Amino acid sequence: MAFPATFIRTISTLTQGALGGLPRSIVAVTRETISGDFTPDAETGLIAITASTKDAFIEANEVGAPGISKDVELAFAGQIQPPIFYILSTNGVAINNTALNIANKYPRNWSFITLSSMTQGVDDYATFIADAETINAWCTNAREKLFLFTFSLEADEYGDYALPAAFDADQPLRAEAPNTLTLISNRYTEPDEYTKAFNNPILAMLVFILYGGYVSRSAGSLSDANDFDDALADTFPETFRATIEQASLAQYNGSKDAGNSAFVFNTQMNDKVYPPTTVQLETKIAQYFVSDYIRVGVRNDLQAAGQPGVVASYADLLKIFALFVTKLNDCWRVGAIQTNAQGQGDFIATLKSEEEILVLDPTWQKTGILPVGAIVAQIRYYSALHYIPFVLQGL
Amino acid sequence: MTLGQVYYALNTAVNQFLKSNGITARLYAFGINPQQQKAKADKATYPYFQSRFPTNVDRPPHTTRDSAIITWFDYQLDFYAAPENSQYNAAEMLEVFEKVMNAIQDTRIQIWRDIASLQKITGPIDTTYEGGSVKISLTTIFRLAAVCSYTLDITPYVESSIDSVMDVIDGALSGEYD
Lengths: 395, 178
Description:
The structure holds 2 protein chains of 2 kinds.
Chain A: E1 26-30, E2 47-49, H1 54-61, H2 66-75, E3 85-89, H3 97-103, E4 112-115, H4 125-138, E5 146-152, H5 172-175, E6 180-185, E7 188-189, E8 197-198, H6 201-211, H7 238-246, E9 250-253, E10 263-265, H8 281-304, E11 309-311, H9 314-333, E12 347-351, H10 354-360, H11 364-367, E13 375-379, H12 389-393
Helix pairs in contact in A: 1-2, 8-9
Chain B: H1 3-20, E1 27-28, E2 48-52, E3 69-80, H2 90-105, E4 117-126, E5 129-131, E6 133-135, E7 137-148, E8 159-161, H3 162-174
Parallel strand pairs in B: 1-2
Antiparallel strand pairs in B: 2-3, 3-7, 4-7, 5-6
């Protein structure tokens, strides 16, 4: 049995249990220069912060890099903490695709990217938005990364707020942002009387839903993810909150809760229209998780069975299909796929017939290239129960 | 049909004819020694037929799975008419042989009409032999033509890489195919 040379580059990636496959780490991008004993990884350029090193990091950087320091503090502020938190520092220059590609050298090491600065776009609007647009464009569907950032605003002299031009419907941050979620906020803390440190509630929310113990966790349900430590709810007037909503952007306040608990809502990915036609953040996370889990799972199962490849035959396609369905069911059991009316995972997976596959590629059994589309699936991923007015009426 | 499938179809047609006409004789495929069957029900009683797998085949040199090629081959039918150490009426036993030959040849019946076309019949050749007792057997060779395929409907053993498997999985997950 001779295998083509391409098989050699197939290496095994172990999954740690059913859910540990994808370390859903967060990367925070900052222009600030990092001081202290925190050197970037030689291969990826990322600085890894853990619960045991975060205090030393803050101590060394709260003067020189106050923006990222406040976000590190925020990420580790609550009861739920990230096992690892990455920082990508550009040392004062704009972030670019090269740096992002290097940081993505091991694509499965992190899945989420956020943008950090002291004022989150208030005093540094031009650079902050420029970086946001670069990251937004880089986060394509193929890369399966999600970009979440808080954009902060200050009131003008009349106490009014206005969304800047970067959030117009035809701008990339809304028109072409399938993997971007922006939260608009106006709250800050004052470390001293001259300094404003703007909050980053979307980071707090991300930590909560990622490390809260479930694969799929609601960001904006009424019972979940409210009143984060170190993140203050916005104080926008009702009219401007409506404006944010009309722009399909997220916000963090208590206006939707009878008990006035603050939570993040409108977590559908940025969209140019309202109501948004994009999926919820939670659905997107579930989708990327399922995709990763199934890819790694099928690959591992084949390799565990001593199969560095399969035979280009319908019988082996059936094997792949069986593995695929098993993995889909795994994902359903952990809640990443919805349940249908029959109490089963809400997905339809189909292996096409031999004749249909021959139509896709008449020579596949000779070339060994399995026709893409031989297996088709419709999957309803997890979606969170969010604030929905008529649900409350029934209570 | 492959040649092997044609062969068994020819046998089946003969047996169906024998059965439908109330004849107890049966046609055995090659590879069976009717006299050595242990189960009594399977043990052949004289007379019986036995066919040989076609050997003189004009096999085409190159075929694909889709090839359906007219193929000429010899189908040999042996008729064992004489049981060992028993009385027999040759005329009565040969009647069975004649009936089968008629069923094959008679244009109104032509039990093989859907399987193969008859080109030529050689025989019967008297292949009676003596081994302690006399056994009478007749051998008839039919030159037949049938449309045969030579490449089985099995897949060639070609490897697909894990990467190719992943492409299929990705295609399914993307939801872009239907």
